[in-house]
Amino acid sequence: MFFNALRSKPSSPLCRPLEEQEERESQKLWFKTAQAVIDRNHELATDEKTKIEEQQREEAALRVNEGVEWHPRLFRAVKGGPGGSEEGEEDLEWIINAQMFVLPGLVDYFPDERLRC
To answer: CA torsion angle for 78, 72, 49, 17 (degrees, to 10)?
Structure first.
């Protein structure tokens, strides 16, 4: 068994402090919106969400007007299709562009080397 959910304990994600994050990292970008939701200030949450979406629309329109093709930094287009490495993922437009790896301390969980990333 790779993962036993009955014995696992929840853990919080590891994140850099907001001041170390880039402006477009989700946690920083959506912080004011999320905080307003937590505070149950739905009007402010809507306003903050609208600001982000309007900025994104303006930037997209500017790219179109300037003929600039947008390529996400952390994602790539899905290469689906019969026999492809991502066959069955055709419903996705983008997929994370990262190499997955197993931390050295976790090697014991994957005794068969073929199962390691």
So the answer is: 110
